[in-house]
């Protein structure tokens, strides 16, 4: 018998490896990756993303509205990220959903 979520066809909760890493890999790691960590923030791994940077934690698991990364990509906090182009709304939604679901690896 299928679990209730699988029976309904619900998607699994977002994960860093599957859902968030491709977004930050494309948009964030040139400044927040293994070679450069502007603001002391590194986003190329799950552990580093949860570790935060000079401004404190970037991710507050379960609370996207208090997570600095969400404020930056939604352009509610300056400097907005990424600096020259806005993330597409679906990418922002993935990051929000990941954090809301508990910021799973």
Question: Per the principal axes of the C-alpha atoms, what is the gross shape?
Answer: globular
The number of distinct helices, counting runs of at least 4 residues, comes to 5
Tally of structural domains: 1
* Secondary-structure-derived class: mainly alpha
Q: What number is the mean pLDDT?
A: 93
List unreliable stretches of 5+ residues. Answer: 1-7
- Separation, N- and C-terminal Cα atoms: 27 Å
Share of residues in strands:
under 5%
By DSSP, the count of extended strands is: 0
Compressed to H and E, one letter per element, the order equals HHHHH
**Helicity range:** 25-40%
Q: What does this protein structure show overall?
A:
This protein has one domain. It has helices at residues 4-8, 16-27, 46-51, 68-73, 89-100. α2 (16-27) crosses α5. It is mainly alpha-helical and 105 residues long. The chain is built from 5 helices and no strands.
What are the defining features of this structure?
globular; 105 residues; 39% helix; 5 helices; disordered N terminus; mainly alpha; 0% strand; single chain
Compact description:
The protein is an all-alpha fold and 105 residues long.
Provide the fold topology.
Blueprint: H1 4-8, H2 16-27, H3 46-51, H4 68-73, H5 89-100
Helix pairs in contact: 2-5
